[in-house]
Each structure stands twice: as C-alpha cells, then as structure tokens.
Amino acid sequence: DAKTTQPPSMDCAEGRAANLPCNHSTISGNEYVYWYRQIHSQGPQYIIHGLKNNETNEMASLIITEDRKSSTLILPHATLRDTAVYYCIVRVAAGNQGGKLIFGQGTELSVKP
Amino acid sequence: DGGITQSPKYLFRKEGQNVTLSCEQNLNHDAMYWYRQDPGQGLRLIYYSQIVNDFQKGDIAEGYSVSREKKESFPLTVTSAQKNPTAFYLCASSIVGGADEQYFGPGTRLTVT
Questions:
Q1: Of chain B residues 28-57, which have a CB less than 8 A from chain A?
Q2: Chain B positions in Cβ-Cβ contact with residue A105 (cut-off 8 Å)
Q3: pLDDT-derived band of residue A4, with 50, 70 and 90 as boundaries?
C-alpha cells in the first residue's frame, strides 16, 4: 500500500472551509484514497473515498488531482465538532489482502470560534 | 440500531493476566478487524477475519489471539506474552470485496499495571 504524507496540524475558523491536503505520490492504479477522522478517544469515522474522480457526500468533498499523486479533503463549513485527527489512507480494495488500512499520523484539525 | 459494540469501555488488569476484549456487530458484515492505538499514533492492525472460522495475522499479532466462531463476534485475547498491552483497542467491520469502508466501534482502553 502507498504511503501518504499529511501536515501534522491545521487551524480553521468556524464556518469557513477546511482544506486538508494529502500527498500520495507512489499510489498505484488500483489503489483508492480514503479519509477517516478520529475525535479524541473515539473510534475512527469513515468520511469519504475515491479512485480518480472527485467525490462529494453529505460530510465532505474529495478532490483528487489528475495524476492521482495528491488529494484534498474539503469540509465546506467547518464547525467546532469537526475538530479531530484526519487520516488520509490509500489502499487496494479488500480482496485477498483483507482490506487492511494503514494509518499514518494524520492531520490534527482545530476549528476555532 | 445497527453498529459495532465493544465492551467494556475501560479495563484494568494486573500484569501476567490474560484478558479478553469483546467486539460484536449487527451490520451483517463478513470481515472484522482488531487495531491497536498508542498515544499520538495511528492505528496498527493486530488480526483480521474475512469469514467465520478463519482469521489472519496483521502487523502486530504477537501476544494476541482471536476467534471467529460467529459472524457477529470477534473477541480479542491479550495474553501475558504481550510485552506492552496498555493501549486503546479498536474493532472494525466491513463487507468483503470492492472499495468497502470499515466501520469502527467505540474502543476499549486497556490498562495493565
């Protein structure tokens, strides 16, 4: 599975968009980009995933560059409850690898009033 | 409500004792996973199972054991052979195949003294 690089921390003002970058320059053609977040002392929460097209759901948007070497998670209107550690993960679909998720250090997002 | 439950939330044991952590899901997921998280770190995979009566070691299986006798249940035993058992333990489940996301339980914080 490809390795990802994320900034260790970011701040965002409440109500503004939070743009969290992720570099995955060694991503393979069959690897998806996943985003999870973890609020302190809770289990991680799935946010969104994509292969090569941009994706949007009720929580966030995922923008993947055309060469797939980087992506950005966008929280359009950040709230205080979005304060968490955000993990960018790339992996193949489950298949016979068991769906292993490799978590890095993530980005600690602090949303401030 | 569908979801994953882990019990207890906090667990305290004396060194040298085996302890079993519970994980139950009613999502009808075939795959289940156990992760360990240490302070300030990402999650690391201990064991995973894609089908009843079958499971595979993850990256840090030494000192742990699992069983998968029922689809809904995937208990983890932390044995006395685990050198640093104090950690936050997270269970997850997913469907098998395709770009499936994993759903996490609330976690069990184990402290061994």
A1: 31, 33, 35, 40-45, 48, 50, 56
A2: 40-42
A3: very high
